[in-house]
Amino acid sequence: MKSTVETLSPTRVRLAIEVPFVELEPSLKKAYREIGQQIQIPGFRKGKVPAAIIDQRVGRGTVLNEAVQEAIPQNILAAVREHDLKTLGRPEVDITEFNDGDSLNFTAEVDVRPEITVPDLAAIEVTVDELQIDDSEIDEQVKNLRERFATLKTVERAAAEGDYVQIDLRATVDGEEVPGGSASNISHEVGSKQLLPGLDEALVGLAAGEETTFTTQLVGGEFAGRDADVVVTVRTVKEKELPELNDEFAQLASEFDTIEELRNDLRERVTRGKRVEQIYAARDKALEQLVEAAEVPAPEGVIRDEVESRKQAMVDQLERIGASLEDYLAAEEKTEEQIDTELTEAATQGVKVQLLLDTLADAEDVQVSDDEFGHEIVHRAQRAGMAPQQYYDQLVRSGTAGAVFGDVRRGKALAAVMERITIKDSAGNEISLDALREASEAEHAHEH
After folding, report:
1. What's the burial of 227, exposed, middle or buried (CB within 10 Å: 0-12/13-18/19+)?
2. Which is nearest to 408 in space by CA: 356, 358, 357, 372?
3. Which of 91, 172, 293, 427 would you label with 266, given CA atoms 20 to 30 Å apart?
4. pLDDT tens for residues 90-100?
């Protein structure tokens, strides 16, 4: 096999490969063997059909084609090793010349990892928002807690917004009952807009035992798009009673004895959450600066594949909830071109960041221990709701175990970046990574 390499851009090369016919022999033999296993010819045992008979039956061209399909990836791999290329993504192959008995000539265009010079990390400085916590944020947290421990009490008065009512509904179109249009004893929060349009307005001012009729447009069923008359009858009206804000409430809603301790704990939690946000903001800004300073080029083929897979994941997710890409575009008021542009921008930045962190990991000789890799597998398996071994086997089968390993290695390289850059807040205070790390760990511990 002879091969030459031509640089098309900083991120793409074209390999020209020539494979003498004699080197195709093993692939040709294998093709005859495999095709011989698949066809049945009277008088010959399966797998014992002579080559000449196979040529007659399926054609020599078919066999050659199968042999070539097998030989191409092997020879690309050999050429990549010979020229010491760091390839990314899938090669695009073009067979330039091949006749029976002659050498196979083909080209393979493939993205490669560009040469990147990593800027001095110590010179990178990022600014994040100053950590400020307003009392109103703690009040909001307390309010949410009170809502969780609220009780409902029946009242002898007309319903108002925020009340809970038990109701019966009956829908008719031109005096004809709507199939499935009746329901009894439904619980509904007045003003929540959870049920039919027009219902909340009709309920305000109705007391237990009273009824009224309102008009609404039906969205489903055989009367879809038609106006229906709906009779709503109120059975009971209940108002929400929030518990009093005192030490007793603190004991009911938390492990604390006083409302003061509860508020302090909530303040700590809000602070931790904001510290974690600071980490993420600092990380994103640092990576953006580094990618720009290093002038990382974008490999087109890899980005094309990445955009395709992100779009497919989006379509799959929409299908799971019973929607289509068209529905999504209508809801977001966007065109498919706009979505493609957004996906391309996100994928381009993502790929550039990966290339930068890979280069950094090489420069720093970042190693991943079995323990670290195992830890990541366990973590991902938990998220996927699978047993770790089963998850790992699936990765190996799909050939993506290497990608996970790469993610862990890039994560370690990113940690090294965060150690060395300067992080300040908008007030000019330097933020220590330890404070951020503690916040992040406490947040994780709290999640589990």
Report:
1. exposed
2. 372
3. 427
4. 899 999 999 99
Could you tell me the pTM of the whole model?
0.70
- Lookup result for tokens 């370690």: 412
Q: 164-173 and 176-189: which strand pairing? A: antiparallel
**Cα–Cα dist 292/357, whole Å:** 13
- What number is the average pLDDT over the span 223-227? 83
Distances (CA, A) of 176 to 170, 185, 197: 11, 22, 20
The span from the CA of 241 to the CA of 324, in Å, is 42
For residue 279, give the 3-state DSSP assignment: helix
Interhelix angle for 325-332 vs 336-363, to 10°? 100
Contact 216, 199 (CB under 8 A): yes
How far is Cα 148 from Cα 118, in angstroms, rounded to an integer? 51
Q: At what angle do helices 259-293 and 401-420 cross, to 10 degrees?
A: 100
Angstrom distance (rounded) from CA 184 to CA 168: 4
Fill in the amino acid letter for 2: K
pLDDT category, 44, cuts 50, 70, 90? Answer: confident
State the Cα–Cα distance between residues 323 and 440, nearest whole angstrom: 36
Q: Are 406 and 360 in contact (CB under 8 A)?
A: no
Residues whose CB is less than 8 angstroms from the CB of residue 58 and which lie 6 or more positions away in sequence, other chains included: 35, 39
The rounded distance, in Å, linking the Cα atoms of 401 and 340 is 28
In angstroms, rounded to a whole number, what is the distance separating the alpha carbons of residues 146 and 98?
Answer: 77
